[in-house]
Structures are given as structure tokens and as C-alpha cells.
Write a structure and sequence with these properties.
10 helices; single chain; Helix Hairpins; Four Helix Bundle (Hemerythrin (Met), subunit A); 0% strand
């Protein structure tokens, strides 16, 4: 009996911890998330400031110390997230679980690789939680609809990408033959690089055709580029128009797997079936 009471007490403690860390519906949960977002933004700014040589030369040690303080805080928070969910591995494999891990990992890698801590700017991805904190559910609905359209159009986009790859390989090979090493097209891979830059209308200008035939081919590639850029947009837009109005998405997080994106009237988690 004492064991059962202790187990229930532990569960109650885990639920309270989950409510604070994962939920934004309560005052404590919202305060925690807002504090976390401020800390994330501050830590990213510190990393960016440290990359400036003048600032690093004068305040390098102080910034380094502050950055490690943030790393320790985020590490403790990451451990608490593991403790507060029923299935920690599901949280670890989720999008935010991976982002949370990547936000602390670079600092520890910097112990072995000096510049590794600059990768901590990935922490800015954690600010995506602001949609849940501010209860911008309508934005979550639109994001869910967009992701659904992208998934349904993935096969068409894959075919499109392979088609583009075929075009740039062919056009790059042709330009290598037409222009040759004399005008900077020193190899087929370098010519393919030119074809990609030209087809995407980026136009760095580091390589450019000099012969009339090469310039004619380049003009055709540029015009083709405008048509190709519109294709992915059309594919995704067509899929979005097929969808009906998206269901209202709740900001609630599952206490077992920590995943979100449930319907507003959902009673159970759509991912693991746990009671919400």
C-alpha cells in the first residue's frame, strides 16, 4: 500500500513537472516557456557576438563563461524533459527532442573541437515553441496544412528534382564541350556547377561563356530556369487547394510522448494513444 502511494505521488510529481515544462496553458507553464525563449535568444546573441574578433578579444572569457552557464541550464532542462514524460525515447526521437539535444551538444563538442560551440546557434530553432506559448493556434493549423501538402506532393517533387539534375548534367557537359578549359569550364563537374547557378538564376558570374554558341545555350538555360522555379510552387499549391479547411489544432502536449499537433477536441494522443 505504501508502495502504491509512493508511486502515485511520483506520478503526480511527474505530471506537475510536465505541466510546467511542456504546457503553456497554465501560468507556471507560460512563465517557464517565456523565460526559456528569452534565454535561448540571449545565448544565440552571445554566440554571435563571440564570433566578432574585436568583441572576443575584449570580452571573450566573460562570454565563454556565460555561454557555459546557459549550456548547463539547457542540459538540466533537457534532463527534466526526459523525466517528465512517460516515454522518454519518443520525446528524444521527436523534432523538438532532437533540437533540444543539438542545442547543448555543440558546447560539449567544443571541448574537443574549438569552433564547435558556434553550432549552438541551432538553439534558435527552439524559439518555434513561441507558437504554442502565445497560443497562435491558427498558425499551427496553417503549418499543419502546409506540411500535409508537402508530404502528398513529395513524390512529384522528387521526380522534378531528378529531372532538374538530369538537365544540369546534360547542359554542363554540353558547355564543357562548347567552351572548354580556355574559358574556365575546366571540367564537367565545374560546368555542372555553372549550369546549376545559371538554371536557378543565381548568376554568381565567376564562370561565364565567351563564345556565341555558349552564350546562346546560356540564354536558353536562363529562360528555362524561370519556368523550372515555378514548378515546385505549382505542385504544392495544387495540393493545398485540394484540402478542405484544416481542423483546429490544440497546443496541448502529450504527457507520455511529448508530441503535439492534436485536434482541439481530442481526448487521446494521435501518436501513442495516451489520455490527454
Amino acid at each position: 500500500m505504501a508502495y502504491l502511494n509512493k508511486s502515485k505521488l511520483k506520478n503526480r510529481w511527474q505530471m506537475r513537472l510536465h505541466e510546467i515544462i511542456f504546457e503553456a496553458d497554465t501560468r507556471a507553464g507560460k512563465a517557464f516557456d517565456i523565460t526559456l525563449i528569452v534565454a535561448i535568444i540571449t545565448s544565440v546573441i552571445i554566440v554571435m557576438l563571440e564570433s566578432v574578433s574585436a568583441i572576443r578579444g575584449r570580452w571573450g572569457d566573460e562570454l565563454y563563461f556565460i555561454e557555459w552557464c546557459f549550456t548547463i541550464i539547457f542540459t538540466i532542462e533537457y534532463i527534466l524533459r526526459f523525466i517528465s514524460v512517460g516515454h522518454p525515447l519518443k520525446y528524444a526521437r521527436s523534432f523538438f527532442g532532437i533540437v533540444d539535444l543539438l542545442s547543448v551538444l555543440p558546447s560539449y563538442l567544443s571541448l574537443f573541437f574549438f569552433s564547435g560551440h558556434y553550432l549552438t546557434v541551432v538553439r534558435i530553432l527552439r524559439v518555434l515553441r513561441i507558437f504554442r506559448v502565445l497560443k497562435l493556434a491558427e498558425h499551427l493549423d496553417e503549418a499543419h496544412m502546409l506540411m500535409s501538402a508537402l508530404k502528398r506532393s513529395s513524390r512529384k517533387i522528387t521526380v522534378f528534382i531528378f529531372s532538374v539534375m538530369t538537365i544540369v548534367v546534360i547542359m554542363g557537359s554540353v558547355m564543357y564541350i562548347v567552351e572548354g578549359e580556355k574559358y574556365g569550364f575546366t571540367s564537367i563537374p565545374r560546368s555542372i556547377y555553372w549550369a546549376i547557378v545559371t538554371l536557378t538564376t543565381v548568376g554568381y558570374g565567376d564562370i561565364s561563356p565567351k563564345t556565341p554558341l555558349g552564350q546562346t545555350i546560356a540564354s536558353a538555360v536562363m529562360i528555362l530556369g524561370y519556368a523550372i522555379i515555378a514548378i515546385p510552387t505549382g505542385i504544392v499549391t495544387a495540393e493545398m487547394t485540394k484540402q478542405s479547411s484544416p481542423k483546429k489544432i490544440s497546443t496541448q502536449s502529450c504527457p507520455e510522448c511529448s508530441l503535439e499537433g492534436h485536434d482541439a477536441d481530442a481526448k487521446h494522443c494521435k501518436w501513442c494513444g495516451a489520455l490527454l
